[in-house]
Amino acid sequence: MTVTSSSASSSRSSTSARSKARRRALEILFEAEQRGATPMDVLRLRREKGDLVVNDYVVAILDGVARHQEDIDELLSTYARGWTLERMPRVDVMALRIGAWELLHNDEVPDAVALSEAVSLVRQLSTDESPKFVHGLLGRLEKLKPTLG
Known about the structure:
149 residues; mainly alpha; 78% helix; disordered N terminus
């Protein structure tokens, strides 16, 4: 089967939109933690202050991470060898929460994409060591996924 340029372009823009949504969700999760607010409250405030247009996938991520955060954090704490969530860079924690939610609770996202996107976020926004750490931790969760559900 041959992929036409319009479907290839559509696929790229869809991926790009999702990548942007993940980054926006990470920013909102980070801000919410810093302010001691819920992510949905931060989103609402951002929308009220300006003409912020939010991709539906941002809302899905925020909702999914919020609904599963306790379980996700427990898994991250359990499988982060030698690290507590408190010691991790906060950007890494937010990227890990998004990646873990996509990996474990969002069947629309292939596991490899969830891993790659989380690594990409920390590569852009965090420390030099973060990509390897995030890849390793989410990779462990991916291998354990059949036993976690």
